[in-house]
Structures are given as structure tokens and as C-alpha cells.
Amino acid sequence: MTTSRIAARVRRIKPSPSTSAADRANELRRQGKSIVNLVVGEPDFDTPPHIRQAAAAAIERGATRYTLMAGTVELREAIVAKLERENGLRYAMNEIIATSGAKSAIYNAFAITLEPGDEVIIPAPYWVSYPDMVLACEGTPVTVACPESQGFKLAPAQLEAAITPRTRWLLINSPSNPTGASYTAAEYRALAEVLERHPHVMVMTDEIYEHIRFDGETTPHLLVEAPALRDRTLIVNGVSKTYAMTGWRIGYAAGPVDLIKALDTLLSQSTGNCCSVSQAAAAAALNGDQSFVAESVAVYKQRRDRTLALINDIPGLSCATPPGAFYLYINCGGLIGKTTPEGKCLNEDGDVVMYLLESEGVAVVAGTAYGLSPYFRLSIATSIETLEEGCTRIARAVAALR
Ligand code: PMP
Question: Among the three residues 289, 323, 346, which one is the final residue of a domain in this structure?
Fold first, then answer.
């Protein structure tokens, strides 16, 4: 047997399950099957014109060279202004770093802080990448199941029970991918009360879906509710979801100077600064006209409401109303134990997802990928026609079960 050339810390991680599901759907499409792809986790809108124009202007004026590692002064000033305007938080320029997507901020924050075996508390369901990022940095993901009955959110007693002397981080993603669950101000205060007893625990807040909120709700901020946590909290955010800018790869972190400095050092010796042209675009997004945000959220809301109604009409499926983000996390417990027309028993949500794909060409992602079963995630970041077609097919597939 040959020993692997790949390091153990990398062999412990797996490719993103949503990418694998999308790959399988694309493969079936290439084979000529009609596929309704409800996997993708990115806005289907184009980046608004004023942002694209800012990027074009940046290219023309020659903003095509290395920038400061932490990001241009223009972009960091825009982030400082955003945090003050939208969140009521004051950050200095040296407490902010721009990264190649929020993903890079999260991964590198683990890379600069985790010693082998250090624990990261990850409420489940979680975004698929978190546990693998922790593993890649030789940490130990400590997932805590947060069932639907508690709104898919971490309860203070669960947090208390999960903390050990090895806990480095609590990771909070609100609104959440995949459930849309969003912590209220009071829930933040209750979690903060626990954290006050455990000063060694840092908090990472992944706020990438901050603005995708329905029913007139806004997203509270942990640090507004618990300012005492400021010196051990790392805010992670970015422009990908809010401004339909997933391909531009701009995220950022805001937090204590020692963490930001270490991120700067590690990134300067690895990827270097994020794309100069994208930084100009992101500054324009944060500083410019915000009407795209409300307009796109109104469209997501229509899709959410329509798709929820269709899904909740299907016997065996149920979905709680997500207050944010652009996914439905659908409970498929009522299908477990049923048999397909081919005689295969559906034993878990992965079987349900394979059945929907192979029988009706509907691509969704199994709840196992997010750490809480039996569910599947359906993305509403696609046209209402596609969503209706997807639901019709899901209903047909379910009706064929025995
Ligand atoms: N956090 C969550 C919860 C996400 O869903 C995503 C995108 N799927 C990201 C972070 C990554 O965002 P970015 O494109 O800025 O890297």
C-alpha cells in the first residue's frame, strides 16, 4: 500500500456536498435528463449596474495592482461606515480586513487560532463548510443538534453544556444557511450571559445573510446586545449574497486588532490581497444606492411564500417558515420508510434526495450534509417558474411512493 502524498489534515475533509449534488445534477443534464436544479446557494440576479460600472472604472484607472493586504483604504472605509450605519458598531481601520469571500475570513480565522484538538462549537444544522474548515485547521468540530422544536437555534443550556476548557470558538450564523433561523435580541442576550461565565470562548458571527430578511424583520447584532463580548468577537460578513456578488469574492472580518493582525500576516504569506477590481466594486456596493437589496428581498419573499405553500401541501413533507436567507429546510420525516416504484426503501434523507433526482430530475441537498436529519434543503434563489416546476415534480415523486 502506498502512503498518501496528501496530509492527514486534508484527508480528513470532504468536498462540499452542495457542490457534489450540483455536479451530479449537471452530469444527468449532460446525459439529456431534464433537471430542475434547486441546489445552488447564490443569488440568481446579476450584480447591479452601478457596481459593475465601478469595477469597469477601476480597471480603466489602473487599479489593477497589489493593494494593501488588509484591503484598500476606500474599501475599509466603506466597511467602517457600513458597520456604523447599519449595525451601530464602531470599528477602526486596523480592526478590519478584506478577504477573498467570507469563506476565506472564516477559514483563516480558524487557521490563526486553533491548536490541534481545540474545539469549535457549531450549532446544527450548519453551513456545510464549517466542520471541514475546522478539521482542515486540525481543530475539533463540536456540533450541537438544534432541532426544529427550538427553531433550529442554540439554547443557552446547550451552549453551557458544550463548553469545555478546549473550546476556542462558538460559531453563530444568523440568518442561517440552511434553515434561515435568526436569533432575536433576547436570544443573543441569553447566549451572552452564558459566554460571560466563560471568558476563554471567542465568538465568530457569520452575518452573510444579514439583509435577506422577510416580513419586515431586521437582524439584531450580538455586539449591540452584549457589547462586553466585543474584544472576543470576530464579525464575518461580505457582499456575496446581499449584492449578488458571489463571483467577485469579497468578504471581510472585523474584530480585535490581534486577530486582524494575525489574519493579515497569514494571508500576506498565502493568498495575498483580494482582487483589486472586486474591492472597488465592493466599496461601490456598500457606499452606493441600496435599493437593489429591498427589491431582491421582495422577490425572494414571493418565492419563499409560493414554494412554502406548495411544499406544505405535499403529504409527508413540512417546512417551517424561514425568517431569512434563501433556502427552505424541508422536513421529510413522513417519507422515511416508504418504498419507491422500483421497490427501494427510503431509509434516510439521502435516499429521498437520490429518489427525487433519479425519478423526477429535482436536485436538492440532503439534511445529512447540514448535520440534522431527516431534511433536505431547497434553494429559492431561482425563478418562480423553476420553483413551481420543482414542486410539481416533487409532489409527483411523493405520490408514487408506497
Ligand atoms: N457563510 C455562509 C453561511 C454561506 O452560506 C456562504 C455561501 N454559501 C458563505 C459564508 C460564503 O460566502 P462568500 O461567497 O463570501 O465566501
Answer: 289
Does residue 180 line the site of ligand 1, with CB under 6 A? no
* Residues 224, 263 within the same domain: yes
N-to-C CA span, the chain: 46
| Centroid of ligand 1 to alpha carbon of 278 (angstroms) | 16
Per-residue confidence at 323, pLDDT binned at 50, 70, 90? very high
What's the confidence (pLDDT) of residue 1?
Answer: 53
Q: For residue 374, give the nearest of 337, 348, 393 by alpha carbon.
A: 348
Q: Is the pTM of this model over 0.90?
A: yes
Q: Give nearest CA residue, ligand 1 atom 12.
A: 102
Q: Which protein residue has the closest C-alpha to ligand 1 atom 8?
A: 41
Checking ipTM against 0.85, whether it exceeds it is yes
- How many structural domains comprise the chain? 2
Ligand 1 atom having least distance to the Cα of 100: 16
Instruction: Judge whether 51 and 243 are in contact, CB under 8 Å.
Output: yes
Domain check: are 109 and 134 in the same one? yes
Ligand 1 centroid distance, CA of 103 (Å): 6
The ligand 1 atom nearest the CA atom of 176: 3
The average confidence (pLDDT) of the chain is 96
pLDDT digits (tens, 9 = 90+) for 14-53: 877 777 777 888 899 999 999 999 998 899 999 999 999 9
Sheet containing 327-331: which strands, arranged edge to edge? 327-331, 375-379, 365-366
State the closest ligand 1 atom to the C-alpha of 238, by its place in the atom list counted from 1. 15
Q: Which domain holds residue 157?
A: 49-289
**Lookup: cell for 284:** 461601490
For ligand 1, pick from 44, 129, 286 the residue to mutate: most ligand atoms within 8 Å of CB. Answer: 129
Phi-psi region of 343 (alpha: psi -120 to 50; beta: other; left: phi over 0): left
Are 163 and 35 a contacting pair, CB within 8 Å? no
Strand, coil or helix: 149: helix
Residue 3: inside a domain, yes or no? no
